[in-house]
Design brief:
This protein is an all-alpha fold and 130 residues long. Helix content is 77%, strand content 0%. It has one domain (3-125). α1 (3-29) crosses α5. It is elongated, with a radius of gyration of 16 Å. 21% of the residues are buried. The model has no long low-confidence stretch (mean pLDDT 90).
């Protein structure tokens, strides 16, 4: 991979890890209060996620993938694992919580910056040579 592409991938991974690790840390330390319910379906869903205990598991997943994004050896795999989650984040915000659309799209762009390596995508999609 050309050095510029490697640097862009590293920068994308580091920036993508920030909201993942940050949200996990915030869940534990409660630095930023969660958005108040504004009556929207998205805000109601956030309350259910927090109050029902699902956020505990999401925080663990965010922390693990955030850390794996920071390790060069696991960066691509972490990006691939994070991609469907990021797409879900965008879909959730577009359909239920419009205030989060900008962050969701930024995360998607960064996530694509981590995984869009033609050589690795070919290895995933094409059968192995015998």
């Amino acid at each position: 991979m050309p050095p510029i592409q490697r640097h862009l991938q590293a920068i994308s991974a580091i920036l993508l890890s920030v909201p993942l690790i940050g949200s996990a840390a915030n869940h534990v330390f409660k630095w930023v209060k969660p958005p108040l319910s504004d009556g929207s379906r998205g805000a109601q869903m956030w309350e259910l996620i927090r109050d029902g205990g699902l956020m505990d598991w999401l925080a663990v997943g965010h922390l693990m993938l955030g850390i794996l994004l920071l390790v060069p050896r696991t960066r691509f795999a972490a990006g691939v694992m994070q991609l469907p989650i990021t797409i879900g984040i965008v879909a959730f915000n577009v359909t239920m919580f419009p205030r989060g659309i900008a962050l969701g799209i930024a995360m998607l762009v960064l996530n694509l910056g981590v995984v869009l390596k033609p050589r690795d995508i070919r290895r995933l999609l094409l059968p192995a040579a015998d």
